[in-house]
Design brief:
Helices cover about 40% and strands about 30% of the residues. With about 140 residues, it is an alpha+beta fold.
């Protein structure tokens, strides 16, 4: 299978069905539905030329604050969640309840450019639950679903 950025160039914006099919993950649908319902927000499709993660991604924001950015991958997806100064204490408090993967990623990710830029490989429901919780730390959810 071709790389995401080769399959969907800047001139070929993928549909939600194409993204879902590429990730092959039921968790992709679940995180998108969760963000839209819990935060009453809509996805923003953008094309990144960044060498580290080139291609189309899906961003979610609420009240001008970034909730997360989702990067489709072959068989899974990456959720970028930034933990800033304001959220750091609550995030560290949560770490003892998170998966070992999240604890390790948090420890290994340096604080830079205003936060810890956690590139979370969402490959299981437990990791997805951690992503939801970290997003809730960034912006507490009002519409629990």
């Amino acid at each position: 299978m071709s790389a995401w950025s080769e399959r969907f160039t800047q001139d070929h914006k993928p549909t939600e069905e194409e993204i879902s099919g590429f990730t092959g993950s039921v968790l992709w649908h679940e995180i998108n539905e969760y963000l839209q319902k819990a935060y009453n927000t809509q996805p923003i499709y953008t094309y990144s030329k960044c060498v580290a993660q080139r291609g189309w991604n899906v961003k979610y924001q609420k009240s001008g604050k970034s909730l997360c950015t989702l990067y489709p991958m072959d068989g899974y997806f990456i959720a970028l969640v930034v933990i800033g100064h304001k959220e750091q204490a609550k995030a560290e408090e949560y770490m003892h309840m998170s998966t070992e993967y999240i604890r390790s990623l948090y420890r290994k990710t340096p604080f830079s450019a205003g936060g810890r830029w956690l590139m979370i490989h969402v490959t299981s429901r437990e990791i997805l639950d951690d992503v939801k919780h970290l997003i809730d730390i960034r912006k507490p959810v009002k519409n629990r679903i």
